[in-house]
Amino acid sequence: MRPSVYDESSPLKEVVLGLAKDFGDIPNSEDCPDPKSLEHVINGTYPHQEALIREMTAVKDVLERYGVKVFRPHNIPGLNQIFARDITFVIEDKILIPNILKTREDELDGIEYILAHFEEDCILDLEEGIRAEGGDVMPWKDHLFIGYSATEDFDRFRTARTNQRAVDFMRERFPHREVRAIELVKSDTDPRVNALHLDCCFQPFGEGQAILYPAGMKHKEDVEYIIEFFGKENIIEVNQEEFYHMFPNIFSIDPKTIISNTSFTRLNTLLRERGFIVEEVTYNEVSKMGGLFRCSTLPLVRS
Q1: For 125-139, what is each residue's pLDDT tens digit?
Q2: Given a cut of 90, is residue 243 above it in pLDDT?
């Protein structure tokens, strides 16, 4: 069995959907991995397991209705396994195992049985010092968009997850792709400023359209590049409040079908006006932990 992911919207065949069961206790403020989680811990609004399970089951139901084979991690009690995207990711016919936060390494144990289905030459373990998370890695047509933090920010912010060495590795490993590295704006304390991953401020969909939050990117030239690449008429730009609620973090089942949050009224209307089928799922509790639909899904095979 071989993985196959060449873009963000080709028809989805197999996917790992994260798991909310036994996700552990509410973290202490000092242990929160992102400012959105921190905000809800401080406010006493951190999500409960039952609500998380209900929301993720609704996503599973939608995916299976479209004929997608859905894998779930083996349950590891006391471990948050919701955000499957970050612990490994697929580019073309390779599954890349990155170096991630030490506190998340045990999540890989939950998907070992899934990875065992793939041929050994499909698995790439990134060497020590190459740091990346799947939310920052986005194959699209002949491009590979990568969100990253330069050394100064990477050493400073807990929310900096992908480094320059990862960008260099991708350029070496996938020389036939145009690797566009996009430096992200980081904050460990303000969820209205922090772009945790690239998919929190940018998401291609359809055949050549994209959602974009320009202020999540540090450099104007990266924003201009994306607008020129996709065409201004094909960009849906979101504002800071929509970014905070994670509008860019939708998930494509195929070029015409998108899973989006029920509360994303403006975005869902625009998508439907552009001819897309929008499968609405309430994912508000999951979003309190700093991720949404793309973050909790790990595509293995797109045709």
Answers
A1: 999 999 999 999 999
A2: yes
Maximum CA pair distance of the chain?
A: 48
Stated length of the chain:
303
Are 86 and 161 a contacting pair, CB within 8 Å? yes
Residue listed under structure tokens 């994912």: 283
- pLDDT for 63 beyond 90: yes
Nearest 10 degrees: Cα torsion 244, 190, 182, 274: 10
- At residue 20, does pLDDT exceed 90? yes
* Bridge partners (DSSP) listed for residue 137: 146
88's CB contacts (< 8 A; 6+ apart) are 95, 96, 97, 98, 108, 111, 115, 134, 298
pTM comes to: 0.96
Secondary structure of residue 74 in the 3-state scheme:
coil
Q: Is the dihedral of CA 43, 18, 163, 171 positive or negative?
A: negative
Calpha distance 249→262 (Å, rounded)? 13
Q: Give the percent of the chain with pLDDT over 70.
A: 100
Q: Which amino acid is at 197?
A: H
pLDDT of residue 1: 82
Contact status, residue 178 vs residue 223, Cβ threshold 8 Å? no
Give pLDDT tens digits for 159-212: 999 999 999 999 999 999 999 999 999 999 999 999 999 999 999 999 999 999
Asked whether the beta carbons of 202 and 210 are under 8 A apart, the reply is yes
Residue 60's pLDDT is 98
CATH of region 12-302: 3.75.10.10
H-run or E-run covering 15: strand 12-17
96, containing H or E segment: strand 94-97
DSSP character for 250? -
Domain positions in the chain are 12-302
